[in-house]
Design goal:
Elements: H1 4-25, H2 28-59, H3 63-88, H4 95-122, H5 132-155
Helix pairs in contact: 1-2, 1-5, 2-3, 2-4, 3-4, 4-5
């Protein structure tokens, strides 16, 4: 039987994969657009993943988890804005623009690692399918690899 959370999770990783591959295929103009969309999408997904902790913290009356649940959204807002402002101002064409965009992507990678660690630490796995965390970890590694490929693109 197909488990919907797995299908949706891997489908959610497709924009990361396609965005990273697209950077290597398309010209710089379309690549900058893809990178901008990737910044926005990465922020939305990070916010969504933080929302999982909101529901668990709310139900479990854990205020610390509620506060942590907001952190990915706040960080993602800053990183999305950072990336979009840099791209809109043409920083991709400037030498140090690659450094700034790479730093933002690197921070997204750290954010996704932190969210995964939050999941392992705070989620009540007794209320989830037995292989949820293994699936979640695999999807996160795909996302991180895609973001890392974007960093590589900026330097080749």
């Amino acid at each position: 039987m197909i488990q919907l959370y797995k299908v949706l999770g891997y489908l959610g990783a497709l924009p990361f994969i396609c965005g990273a591959i697209g950077l290597f295929i398309f010209d710089e103009t379309l690549g900058a657009l893809l990178l901008g969309l990737l910044f926005l999408y990465a922020g939305m997904i990070a916010s969504f993943l933080g929302g999982v902790h909101w529901s668990h913290g709310f139900i479990g009356h854990r205020e610390g988890q509620l506060l942590l649940a907001m952190t990915p959204t706040l960080i993602a807002m800053v990183l999305s804005g950072w990336g979009l402002v840099l791209l809109a101002s043409g920083m991709l064409a400037v030498g140090f623009g690659h450094v700034l965009l790479s730093a933002a992507l690197g921070l997204y990678i750290l954010l996704y690692l932190a969210i995964l660690l939050m999941d392992w630490q705070w989620l009540d796995r007794s209320k989830m399918p037995p292989d949820y965390m293994r699936t979640r970890t695999g999807i996160t590694l795909v996302v991180i690899a895609s973001l890392a490929a974007c960093v590589v693109f900026l330097w080749v």
